[in-house]
Structures are given as structure tokens and as C-alpha cells.
Amino acid sequence: MIEVNNLHKSLGDEQVLQGINLSIQKGEMFALLGGSGAGKSVLIKNIVGLMNPDRGEVLINNQNIHELRGSKLSKLRSSIGMLFQGGALFDSMTVYENLAFPLREKTGLAEEEISTKISRQLKRVELQGSEQKYPAELSGGMKKRVALARCLILEPEIIFFDEPTTGLDPLISNAILRLIYNIHRDLKITAIIITHNLDKIFPIVQKAALIHEGKILDCNTPEKFLESNEPLIKKFVNEATRGPLEAIGNA
């Protein structure tokens, strides 16, 4: 599904990615781990084609995303959803309008079909009846759910979840992660969670990769991470499971 081969990327004089190799299988629930400044965001931007690597390649469904142009690139990007940390909802639009926006921009669906799709996705995230609310009227957890529904509206094959529980209390965090798990299970999407919150993420992912100073330290199952004797991995796991992340990198 996603293959990253020998990916290098510099920003100014800083070499952010230093030969990243990564393989994420179709239908997998995958975690990308690392402290602040480790290179997670730059890696994701390269994977989805928002940045071009200095060298190396990213293959999605055997297509090099950085070689695609025009309608082929647009089609591939339509198969990818992104749940941003803050939700990235349009404040001046209602929930209905936020969900309708990508459908109106990228499809030729009639309004009746758009309405049906919106109702289906709001039911999936347990927000039926919220169509006419504005983001300012929603709680943090509700905004995450609306943003997730908008991610799903174009029926992507792949969704990136960028720190999906940031700023949420523990109960709401658990509810959001349970929702992500259920959606992954029901829709068989490929899900990549970018996070440092191991204690909550490890029970739901099948594999994880730890990035440190632009390199992958390990890519393995959660169980193997927890059993690892590699000093940097042990330090990361210990710090990340007992409090604020200050384990490695520029946290």
C-alpha cells in the first residue's frame, strides 16, 4: 500500500530525513512515533505529496506520488484523508457545509446524494442532528468527530491521524480512539496514527515505527517495542508511558 524507499529531505541546512525506509500494508493500523522535531511531520508531508524529497521515493499503490501530475495526482490524493490536530474545520460553515464542501469540490453529486452521504457519516461518528451547528458551538471532542466525518466523506483508502487525542481529556480521548478503531475495523481502511501517546495507541495498532533524528530506529509490533532492550527505544517507551514526552529528539 505505502512504500517509502531511502527518503532524504533537508530544510535549509538541516537534514530532517536521513534515508527513511518504511512499509505500511493495506488495511493496517499503523503508528508513527517520535518526539517533537524527530521528523514525523516532514515524513508525512513527503508521503502525501505536500513536499518533494531530495532523493528517494514514495509509492502508494505502486505509484510514485512525486511523479504524478494532473488528474492522476488528484485521484490519488482523493484516496487519502487527513485528520489534523485542530480539526481544521471552516469556522464560518455549519457542520453540514463543512462535510458538503469536499463533495461539492470533487464530485458531481446532486444535493440529495450529498445530504445522504453527510447523514451516513455523521451517524458513523455518533453526531446525528448536528448538521446546523457551527464549530464554535461544538466541544473539542465533537469537533474531532466532525473532522473525522469529513475525512470519511470521500471514502478514502488511507487516513492519517495527526495526534488525534491532543487537547482532549482522558475520557474523550478514549472515545475518539475507540471510534477510530471501530472505523478501521468496519471500513478496512489503512490508518496511520502520528503520536507519542503509546499507552493509548499500542492496544489498537498492529505495527509501529519510531523515528528519531530523521531515521527509523525500529519498525515492529507493539509487543516487540515494549520488550526492546535498545537504549533509545527503552527510554522513549518508559517516558512516553509515564508522562510528558521528553525521551528523545528535541522534545
How are the strands of the biggest sheet laid out side by side? 6-7-8-3-9-10
Shape label: globular
The count of strands amounts to 10
Secondary-structure element pattern, one letter each: EEEHEEHEHHHEHEHEEHH
Calculate the terminal CA-CA distance, rounded to whole Å. Answer: 31 Å
> How many individual helices?
9
Give the % helix. 25-40%
Strand fraction equals 15-25%
* Overall average pLDDT: 90
Please outline the major beta sheet.
6 strands, mixed
Rg computed from alpha carbons, rounded to a whole number of angstroms: 18 Å
By secondary-structure content and strand pairing, the structural class works out as alpha/beta
- Unreliable stretches covering 5 or more consecutive residues: 243-251
What does this entry show, briefly?
The chain is an alpha/beta fold. It has helices at residues 40-47, 70-78, 95-106, 111-124, 140-152, 170-187, 198-201, 222-227, 231-240; strands spanning 2-11, 14-24, 29-33, 55-60, 63-64, 80-83, 158-162, 190-195, 207-212, 215-220. Residues 243-251 have low confidence and may be disordered.
